[in-house]
Amino acid sequence: MITQEKRSTVVRYWFEKAEESMASARREFEAGSLSFAMNRLYYAAFYAVSALLMAHKLSFKKHSGVRAAFHQRFIKPGLLERKWGRLYDQLFEDRQEGDYLVFISFEPDYVSTRLDQCAQFLEHIRPLLPSISEE
């Protein structure tokens, strides 16, 4: 059984990883490494959602479990707007394509837009994390 203090530590850890991944995505974008930037954007969102789920006593071993729980617990009930669920899904798909498809490339404008959207995504997750928003 995980204590509330330990849970708060894990929530902070995951959200810090989300912020680090955002910073990494920006660096990769500025360096012109667009596929790597897309990878880091997905992980920024993934870590933020993992923090959110952990704050609600949920954790999953697979990306599909995180994705499904995010939609079930936060998008469908309206705690977060549907556009954030669609963004998460698109980042997941982009990461899959960028990591596993041969000759895939992303346009700079597309990645730039996703950078802005993912930063907003993290800012919408932050208030739902009591151990983060109280700092």
List keywords for this structure.
mainly alpha, 76% helix, globular, Four Helix Bundle (Hemerythrin (Met), subunit A), single chain, 135 residues, 6 helices
Describe the structure.
α2 packs parallel to α5 (108-125). The protein is 76% helix and 0% strand. The protein has one domain (4-133): Nucleotidyltransferases  domain 2 (Four Helix Bundle (Hemerythrin (Met), subunit A)). It is mostly helical and 135 residues long. The chain has helices spanning 4-30, 34-55, 63-75, 82-100, 108-125, 130-133.
Write the layout of secondary structure elements.
Elements: H1 4-30, H2 34-55, H3 63-75, H4 82-100, H5 108-125, H6 130-133
Please provide a brief summary of the model:
The chain is an all-alpha fold and 135 residues long. It has helices at 4-30, 34-55, 63-75, 82-100, 108-125, 130-133.
What fraction of residues sit in β-strands?
under 5%
Total of domains: 1
User: Total number of β-strand segments?
Assistant: 0
The separation of the N and C termini measures 25 Å
Helical content band: over 70%
The CATH architecture is Up-down Bundle
Using the coordinates shown, work out and report the CATH topology: Four Helix Bundle (Hemerythrin (Met), subunit A)
